[in-house]
Amino acid sequence: MPNVGPLELAIVLVIALVIFGPKRLPDLGKSLGSGMREFKESLTGKDDDDDEDQAKLEAQASQPQPDPDAEPVEGEVVGDRRS
């Protein structure tokens, strides 16, 4: 495999700058970085969805649950109670 030196790297960067232009080059780098990050996370098994699911479960657990035996208050919408 050939070694890539600083001169070859500079030539590739100049060609990329000429082809894509100075305005699109940062966006390309950003999208390339996020794509590589997502690929790495998929290989390691990390998943942000697990964190979101855990946060939703904790939020639901912290909310007070209505007492099923309590009498409804006037004006309160009461659902169908089935035992």
Question: Can you summarize this structure?
Answer:
The chain is 65% helix and 0% strand. The protein has 83 residues and is an all-alpha fold.
Characteristic terms for this protein:
single chain, 83 residues, mainly alpha, 2 helices, 65% helix
Number of strands: 0
Helix content: 55-70%
User: Pairing-aware structural class of the strands and helices?
Assistant: mainly alpha
Give the CA-CA distance, first to last residue: 73 Å
Describe, in plain words, how this protein is organized in 3D.
The chain has 83 residues and is mainly alpha-helical. The chain is built from two helices and no strands. It has helices at 6-44, 48-62. The relative contact order is 0.05. The model has no long low-confidence stretch (mean pLDDT 78).
